Amino acid sequence: MPFTLTPTYDENPRLRELVTRLRDYLDGELADYEAKLGLTHESRYTRDVLEPVWRRSRELGFYGIHLPPEHGGQGLSFTELGALKEEVGASGRVLQLSVLGDMGGPLRAGSILRYATREQLDRYLLPVIRAERACCFSLTETGAGSDVRAMTTTATPDGEGWRITGHKVFSSAGPFADFSVLIARVAGSDAYAAFLVDLDSPGCTVRDAETPMSGQHIESDIILDDCYVGPGQLLGEVGDGLRIGLGRVTANRLLHCPTVLGLTRRALALTLDFARTREVFGGPLAALQSIQHKVADMATGYYAARSMTYDGLAALDAGGRPRAEAFMSKLFVAETAFRIADEAVQIHGKAGLVRGSEVEWLFRSLRMFRVLTGSSEIQKNAIAHQLFLGDRN
């Protein structure tokens, strides 16, 4: 995999064409739309702002592009989807998560299609794919992050339906979602179940979540107080809850990495531009050997992290189960991305410390990934487990 900050994908004509069109949309039409509205990464935006992006991305073929053709997608390989996610992350766009459907769209719903009944597909999931509805995912609780079995949200049988009580946090896309894919413990058992919960149901309250350090307003708390859901809202079977909640774990873990690589690529590109144009001591900052060494280390780290990620995605495409490799990629990408962002701030100096500058926002965002979707410590535990037990577990 050759090193470049602008991959061309000449070996894959379909992907090359998709990346070219995606870059044109991100840098042109979407950039103009965001500028017209004055959006920043810390803006509060509503469905009125997001729906035009969902619809336009769908018209262009990007929204849900990973799905099979029968659902309007192109059945992308994991490697191809990873490449598009990286491009979106590298774009610098505020609404980047709305283009492929990461935030409340098909990338959130696609992995659960196989559990849905015909009625659930028609009522909930196919409208998400068509950019008509949005969903959020509710698994995490204040006392149940990495230890998901510590959740206290409980579903109690009531006739043919269920009464759910509990408090979910960090439900991504919650502020503008229509329904939640919500995981709860079944009362009186050790089983877990997944439910499709309409967020306007009696007993369900959507509340602003605590603002993460990225400053984005894209999370909600979902509070349920004896909220009734009917039998048609049980997704899969009782006992499938954690399988659905943590489904496609290896693939999802690997597919988080390209987005982070894109943000890292953006930080590196901004740093190179700054070093070329910033004048110090009668010459460009880039002329200083200390700066040259820093950017050399940054680029090398990015190349290594990217190579590791795409090797894992290629293994998935070949039908493998790269479990250890997925844990290693998540760990290495998270830690390397943050080191690169830290150096980007250092090289920018005062300009990198100003709240609202892009490199400062990237620093805060990339710091989060060392915790989100499984902390670095959790990844190390899993890697050691794989090394000691291997195929025996």
Automatic annotation (TrEMBL):
Residue span, Acyl-CoA dehydrogenase/oxidase C-terminal domain: 239-387
Recorded superkingdom: Bacteria
Protein name: Acyl-CoA dehydrogenase family protein
Organism the protein comes from: Nonomuraea recticatena
Statement: the UniProt record of this protein carries the keyword Cytoplasm: no
UniProt keyword Translocase, yes or no: no
One protein family per Pfam: Acyl-CoA_dh_1
Segments forming domain Acyl-CoA oxidase/dehydrogenase middle: 136-227
Cofactor or coenzyme needed: FAD
Entry keywords, A to Z: FAD, Flavoprotein, Oxidoreductase
Domain Acyl-CoA dehydrogenase/oxidase N-terminal: 15-131
Family that this chain belongs to: Belongs to the acyl-CoA dehydrogenase family.
